[in-house]
User: Which sequence fits this backbone?
């Protein structure tokens, strides 16, 4: 379990470092990724998650 936590921490640290480096090298693309891309990604993830949860429930109750 400790090895798993350590590997997750290492991955998170590497990802943060890479994201910071990308943002410093490409400021306009970093801005677009943070303030345009991330909200679209989050909305898409919420839409897919809601569909995956609600569709089986609607089929069980015969709403579709």
Assistant:
């Amino acid at each position: 379990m400790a090895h798993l936590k350590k590997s997750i921490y290492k991955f998170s640290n590497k990802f943060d470092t890479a994201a910071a480096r990308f943002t410093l090298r490409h400021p306009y693309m970093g801005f677009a990724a943070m303030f345009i891309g991330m909200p679209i990604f989050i909305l898409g993830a919420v839409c897919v998650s809601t569909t995956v949860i609600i569709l089986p429930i609607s089929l069980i109750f015969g709403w579709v």
Remarks:
- The chain has a mean pLDDT of 93.
- The two ends are 44 Å apart (CA to CA).
